[in-house]
Please model this.
Amino acid sequence: MYSEKLLDHFKNPRNMGRIENADGIGKVGNPVCGDVMWIYIKVRDDRIADIKFETFGCGAAVATSSVITELAKGKTLEEAEKITNQDVIDVLEGLPPLKKHCSLLAEQGLRAAINDYREKQRAKH
Amino acid sequence: MYSEKLLDHFKNPRNMGRIENADGIGKVGNPVCGDVMWIYIKVRDDRIADIKFETFGCGAAVATSSVITELAKGKTLEEAEKITNQDVIDVLEGLPPLKKHCSLLAEQGLRAAINDYREKQRAKH
Amino acid sequence: MIYLDHNATTPCDPVVLEEMKKWFTEMFFNPSSIYTASQRAKEAVEDARKKVARLLDASSEEIIFTSGGTESNNIAIIGTALLLKNRGNHIITSLIEHHAVLNVCKFLEKNMGFQVTYLPVDKYGIVDPDDVRKAINDRTILISIMAANNEIGTIEPIEQIGKIAKENNVVFHCDGVQVAGKIPVSVKKLNVDFFSLSGHKFYGPKGIGALYVRKGVKFKPVFYGGHQEKGLRPGTENVPAIVGLGKACEIAEEKMAQDSSKEKILRDELEKKLVERIPEIIVNGHPEKRLYNTLNICVKYVEGESMLLHLDFEGICASSGSACTSGSLEPSHVLLALGIPPEVAHGSLRFSLGRSNTMADIERTADVLPEIVEKLRKMSPFWNKK
Amino acid sequence: MIYLDHNATTPCDPVVLEEMKKWFTEMFFNPSSIYTASQRAKEAVEDARKKVARLLDASSEEIIFTSGGTESNNIAIIGTALLLKNRGNHIITSLIEHHAVLNVCKFLEKNMGFQVTYLPVDKYGIVDPDDVRKAINDRTILISIMAANNEIGTIEPIEQIGKIAKENNVVFHCDGVQVAGKIPVSVKKLNVDFFSLSGHKFYGPKGIGALYVRKGVKFKPVFYGGHQEKGLRPGTENVPAIVGLGKACEIAEEKMAQDSSKEKILRDELEKKLVERIPEIIVNGHPEKRLYNTLNICVKYVEGESMLLHLDFEGICASSGSACTSGSLEPSHVLLALGIPPEVAHGSLRFSLGRSNTMADIERTADVLPEIVEKLRKMSPFWNKK
Ligand SMILES: Cc1ncc(COP(=O)(O)O)c(C=O)c1O
Ligand SMILES: Cc1ncc(COP(=O)(O)O)c(C=O)c1O
Ligand code: FES
Ligand code: FES
Model:
């Protein structure tokens, strides 16, 4: 069902955990499957200096969380915003049809974190 | 499906054939299965002195023909008329449900032969 | 023993059984489960699906596994009727279909307000495509015609009927149970929307069949339950049987050419010998457009079951029509549709050959049957009357 | 490998497979044919029918072979609905039935004008017989309640419900797939009219099941075709699988007492250890009225699939609910019916034990799972929030 690549990310998730005093937090969930993903980012000079996730969800949700953090880390916010769920799927060498939406959760989680950061910045000024 | 007894009567039918100048002939058939049985009798002193059959039909039809001729042979007409399909079934040690009607054909064939004989007698007088 | 009843069922090829075994025991897993071992079972199912698809020149997504030919026919016909009943209530089929088509049509007539046209056939058992065209009206939603008849072996002009169905936008189901694994089939070329097959008719296991469903063609499921077979046929997958069916398809592809030329020679020889040796017999079915393994004869003035019993005493297995109607007393509906009188139809015998048969089998059968016929004719009032 | 998913499917007992073998190859004959060899196949089928009947305390004439539990449920429910639709259009079932009952009921609601009452259950999953009584109205034609639930193992008060059905002259179907072969069943004592079972749930083959139909109870067939199974379930009989099912019934009778006491000890031990070692877990189902082999837990703040994948890495096969719903994303309808919140229901795990399990399996599972839970909880926003 799942690729070797996915199982590796699931077993050894990268950037798992929480960032205290994160600059932005994205909290997303899928009402159907009930899965929930929180993405924390630390931003320096418009760049994602650090990123972590917490996920309650299926194997694919965990793996896509892991992948999206790897993809985003070090990128400028503008670059990071352009990461799509397809990029995540590509890294994972495919997802079962029923599990496509898990990668969408990851895409949405990252974008929500960036938006949260931007809104907080706006609020400061 | 069929008993050993039935298969024996089928393989080696008793009284098979025709009686030329029979005293009575019973010609019966079942319109559903298309099977046909002809029973020939020779009568002496109100007794069935000889009896033969010709049958176009299933294994059970052949066997019941054979059995009914054996049961009838030597009996008085009155006795012979009382032979039922159940007597035939008993000799054959049972019949499959779908094949009960074959034994009825034998009963009817014998009775038709006796009736035929009686009518011919009546016609003579 | 001489087995000449391959249209009723075939022995499971030992290679097929061997392939199935481990899926009963070590690899018994439910393909729907999540763990790795289950995924192996799932892969085996998908691999078998590919093999079935290849046999029919279809793609895997177009194959649904069922419990056999009867189920394949039923779900194609009932499923289409349920789906399209608001579009029309007319079905076209033929008088010589298997009961797994005919009795479904009768059910739809009696219980769901359908009208069914039962097309006649010519004296060889062939459906005229022109009759199909003429029978189509604006309420026609389905045509169901068999690829080859199980009793007489006549092969129907499916490709032409398929064309007509397509032109008129009518769904076309073909009961292919007697041809799958015996002759090359391309569902694409045949223009069929549904095609049924059954594993045990070509050396696969019993209790497993498949239904080809052309991409884009829909039907309403008949059974409801889990999500298996895309919800179109729920129930825990019968993995060993599915694997066996796949293997049988693979073997059929390999052996088809060789089987067919061998069996045709044997069948023709049997036909020739019986016609020579037994007076007043009729050979049923089309002289050429006929399954290479099937010989159906009517022996006048003798009844079929009696001949079968005597053949059985000699160790020869044959049938008089289809196995599924052995519970019935009436003469074959197929032979009656050919215009054969009932009393002659009662004297029918079907010999259907298979991989294991040899020329010795044929010679013995052709030696034994004439004697049996003679014996029974001696007993027959009709013969003696002549 | 440690297999703890016996409610999904069981390995076919090697003795069962051994018994089946010759019916694939040497004795492959169609039981409907007339020759002696076929009669052997027919006898084997009837012998198996007796064994199935004995397991259920029924008589042979009351047993129909089907392709599995799904088909048994479908033909009992649809067949009754078709037969009695002019007498009434109301069906009573429960919220926790298998999809092979629930989705059939939904089909009848959507497509055939039926009204269905889905009875609630208490927090243990038990249907209150009084609720059944109250739900009956003068249009009620059928009650369908399962003998034991496949996910949580809760055993329903079938005997009482059967009494109520009888008093009210309503047909009663019981999905017995999870109890047949596991606990003693007497269809007579249970007052059921229909009872479904499936071979592969108790070490028999897949693709074969049976339906008990009480003498005198009628239903309309769903499939049409030949005369097999009295025309109630046409199609060439799956002789090897039928023989295998019969053998599995025989073995089940022999081993039931021993299996149940052994598995109960193991299951209880697993339950005890997991409850001790993992904080914040819930044990689902009734504490006593529960299948002796089933343990269903909810591990709060963790999602089920993730646990299953980690268990699989450790060579442990388990499931989170039923196998047939693994194609669905929603939480278990059974757990929701118990009143468990969706986010907790997502964290469900089902362990179902079987003949081969040992105390070592239990110990290893109880060692491994707490670590897995800890790892996943570390990743969970809910756990970390607490
Ligand atoms: C033409 C045809 N259709 C359908 C069937 C039914 O197949 P099964 O008995 O495998 O369900 C058969 C054989 O019995 C057949 O010959
Ligand atoms: C309670 C219950 N009913 C019905 C079924 C369906 O049985 P099968 O998958 O063998 O058709 C199952 C198992 O899948 C079950 O657990
Ligand atoms: S199943 Fe919904 S996120 Fe994976
Ligand atoms: S079948 Fe009619 S007489 Fe035997």
In short: Residues B 30, 33, 35, 57-58, 60-61, 99, 101-102, 105; C 329 surround FE2/S2 (inorganic) cluster (ligand 4) (CB under 6 Å).
